[in-house]
Amino acid sequence: MLQHVQDTTTAGTVQKTGWRCTVCGFVFTGEKPPKGCPVCHSPSFEFIPVKDHTQLRYDGEKFDVLLINGSTHRGGNTSYMTDLAETVLRERGVSYRRYNLNEHIIDYCWCCYAIKADSCAFPCRNKNDDMPAFHAMLAASKAVIVASPINWNGMSARLKTFLDRTTCMENLYHIGKPGLTEGKIAGILICGHEDGAIKTAMDIWLNFQQLGYVPAPFGIAFRTHGSEFNSSTDREFFRNDELIVRNTRGVVNNVIEMMQLGIEEKLKGRLVPVTE
Question: What is the DSSP string of the chain?
Fold first, then answer.
């Protein structure tokens, strides 16, 4: 990612620290992150300390729910829905792992399947980014809850890339190998300024359906503000909205209840994979 650098410190007065905007990659040098990003105008909480990237690794420990914030903004309105989901998981004593995709390196899909079907297999041929760890965690967890904003009537580009990279798991069914995800439970959370919530949710769900996931009953929650309002007012609206709290908590509860029925184990060996 192209990085722009700004240095506002005075030599000898403070220790210089690099702060990277997780949205656009701008790097700021100072004692604290800037009040806002001068490039993309993201607020200060989108900045994280600059450090060498360490490839994400999965430690092999089993857990229940993989919670994904698929937004370009790790601290925005979609993150608020993800925070609400995380609160319910903690209250219910469910083991989970949360990830904000914009903190991780996930390359675009190489589309190996377009060259040769057998070339697209698990594990993915691209072993150099963070996606192999996510593949392993999708296989290890019992359920996934994905939160996404609405970007031009669809999911975020980061989430689309993440889902594209699950093709190697879906393709196992096409090359005659055992699947790793059928019978797992999925829940979807959508947050946005205006229209496109249902389409975004269905686009995400189609991907998980092709992986063999089972939707939780009442497993989709969405909340929009409206095009008649300025987007700068969205943050205040969502954080004072009772419906987004009730619906998000409901979806997470329903995912947990469905997961605890042991559907994955009951369906093992009984499903006929039908994927594109």
Answer: ----EEE---TTTS--EEEEETTT--EEEESS--SB-TTT--BGGGEEE--------------SEEEEE--S-TTSHHHHHHHHHHHHHHHTT--EEEEEGGGS--PPP--GGGT-GGGS-SSPS--SSSHHHHHHHHHH-SEEEEEEE-BTTB--HHHHHHHHTTHHHHGGGTTT---S-TT-EEEEEEEESSS-HHHHHHHHHHHHHHTT-EEEEEEEEEEE--TTS-GGGHHHHHHT-HHHHHHHHHHHHHHHHHHTTTHHHHHTTT------
